[in-house]
Amino acid sequence: MSEWRARSHPAWWAFLVHRVSGIALALFLPFHFWALGRALAGEAALEGFLHWADTPLVKIAEWGLVLLLAAHLAGGARVLALEFLSWRDWQKSLAACAAALALAAGLAFALAL
Amino acid sequence: MTPARRETLLWIMQRASAAVLALCVLVHLVTVVYAVRGGLSAAEILGRTRGSAAWLAFYSLFVLAVSVHAPIGLRAVALEWLGWRGASRDWVMVAIGSALALAGLRAVFAVFL
Description:
- Chain A has helices at about 1-5, 10-35, 45-55, 55-85, 90-110.
- Chain A is mainly α.
- Chain A is elongated.
- By secondary structure, chain B is mainly α.
- In chain B, helix 3 (about 55-80) runs antiparallel to helix 4 (about 85-110).
- The chains are: A mainly alpha, B mainly alpha.
- At the A-B interface, helix 2, helix 3, helix 4 and helix 5 of A face helix 1, helix 2, helix 3 and helix 4 of B.
């Protein structure tokens, strides 16, 4: 029971989002590097990949990745603030700021697409 | 090196790389949002990066910081969610970090050359 009560806390959600986004980004990175590495075979090879990626499904996935990156950045900034600044009373505010920053980056990317 | 000393060193490396990455990710997010306006093209990406010493230095730093940061994060996940500890975990993480650095620097040079 106490475990579930702990999990309803914003800090637990902030931890979970930070962790899951970190794992997802680590899994994505090899594909990202591979795709950019296509440029070694020339501009046409990179263009070919970008053409393949120019579909609604991939764009949604890209939007998700930008959101994950922003969420991980914001969550990481929250962790650094908690560890290096004396802001422990502001934990919920920090979690809210982290969520807001991630959302803002996601919206900016969605609008730019 | 004692286990406690190793954990302390890894903790410091994780926070130091996080501080570098915080700046890198901010620049990357702004660049991504700017770059996707009107669609991505290989010519546009390579036009920005080819021959640019500034982007080469920036993305090399970005790749090296992430090659330190991601394996240390995954190492903690491996322990806490999989119960994986010991030397095998550390060697796999060294391999992941090395692979990320190699693939990442290859990608950086691919868009620079």
